[in-house]
């Protein structure tokens, strides 16, 4: 079973072989996220499509890295680490790992994931990193030359078995920045061996108990055995500002557990 999502357009500058103006390149990559459900010993192959929309040939090199999320949800990439208990990097085979994509052409990289037979139930992950270079640049030259290189990642989530999520809401606070609506920060602690994705609703009520606004909880991942801040804006782009006053904020988060996670805090909107 698999779910795929997303597309990225990478735009950058390729230095020409001779002196002169640099050339623009753009490469479209899809999908950006692949979610797999595997049994121990099972194999799945996913095609990642690369479309070169520029006027220049582009050399594409693919490799497998590990990644994690900082507490604020920013992806952090690092070299594959066999000691990382949730790394699936060693499960991946890429075909081909390098190719030249002609102007206007489409290429495919096949990503084959094989879960070892002794894999414990849990949520595993890795990233297929695509780097884009001029067609005549060798890997060794990258260390000597200064140049722009485009890079994009397709994130692989692999769930083995049916691990049970265990997520708690540990903090709920209001964060304000000048010139924009306040954000409500929900801190979620995932104590389980599987990643989850959030969904739900934040309900804002006035002092009389009337619901004045409902805001969707962002659909974001919380990785296994980690803590993450989920930022929920109290106003969308086209929403009118809330009038000054005190508001009750109830956050309801669904991560696939039998019960929805519920938290409550107060929002103070000052007179402008």
What does this structure look like?
By secondary structure, this protein is an all-beta fold. The chain has 2 domains: 2-160, Sandwich (Immunoglobulin-like); 167-269, Immunoglobulins (Immunoglobulin-like). It has no helices and 21 strands. Strands 1, 4, 6, 7, 9, 11 and 12 form a 7-stranded mixed sheet that branches. It has a 5-stranded antiparallel sheet with strand order 2-3-5-10-8, with no helix packed on it. Strand 16 and strand 17 form a beta hairpin. It is globular, with a radius of gyration of 22 Å.
Secondary structure class reads: mainly beta
Number of domains: 2
CATH-defined topology of the largest domain: Immunoglobulin-like
Biggest pleated-sheet summary: 7 strands, mixed
Write a compact overview of the structure shown.
The protein is mainly beta and 272 residues long.
Give short descriptive properties of this protein.
single chain; 272 residues; mainly beta; Immunoglobulin-like; 7-stranded mixed sheet; 5-stranded antiparallel sheet; 0% helix; globular
Topology:
Layout: E1 2-5, E2 8-14, E3 23-30, E4 33-38, E5 43-52, E6 58-69, E7 75-79, E8 92-95, E9 98-101, E10 106-114, E11 122-133, E12 150-160, E13 167-175, E14 183-190, E15 196-197, E16 199-205, E17 211-216, E18 221-222, E19 226-233, E20 245-254, E21 261-269
Parallel strand pairs: 4-12
Antiparallel strand pairs: 1-4, 2-3, 3-5, 5-10, 6-7, 6-9, 6-11, 8-10, 11-12, 13-14, 14-19, 15-18, 16-17, 16-20, 20-21
């Amino acid at each position: 079973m698999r779910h795929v999502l997303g597309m990225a357009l990478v735009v950058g500058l390729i230095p020409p072989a001779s002196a002169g103006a640099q050339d623009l390149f753009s490469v479209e990559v899809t999908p950006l996220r692949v979610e797999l459900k595997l049994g121990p010993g099972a194999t799945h192959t996913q095609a990642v499509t690369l479309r070169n929309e520029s006027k220049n040939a582009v050399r594409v090199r693919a490799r497998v890295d590990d990644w994690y999320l900082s507490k604020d949800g920013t992806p952090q990439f690092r070299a594959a680490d066999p000691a990382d208990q949730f790394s699936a990097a060693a499960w991946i085979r890429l075909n081909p790992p390098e190719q030249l994509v002609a102007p206007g052409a489409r290429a495919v990289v096949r990503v084959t994931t094989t879960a070892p037979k002794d894999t414990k139930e849990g949520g595993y992950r890795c990233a297929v990193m695509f780097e884009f270079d001029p067609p005549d640049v060798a890997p060794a030259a990258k260390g000597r030359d200064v140049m722009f290189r485009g890079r994009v990642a397709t994130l692989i989530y692999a769930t083995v078995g049916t691990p049970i999520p265990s997520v708690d809401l540990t903090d709920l606070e209001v964060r304000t920045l000048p010139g924009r609506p306040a954000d409500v920060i929900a801190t979620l602690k995932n104590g389980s061996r599987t990643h989850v994705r959030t969904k739900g609703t934040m309900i804002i009520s006035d002092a009389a108990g009337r619901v004045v606004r409902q805001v969707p909880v962002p659909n974001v991942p919380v990785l296994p055995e980690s803590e993450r801040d989920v930022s929920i804006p109290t106003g969308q782009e086209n929403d009118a500002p809330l009038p000054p006053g005190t508001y009750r904020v109830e956050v309801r988060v669904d991560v696939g557990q039998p019960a929805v996670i519920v938290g409550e805090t107060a929002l103070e909107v000052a007179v402008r």
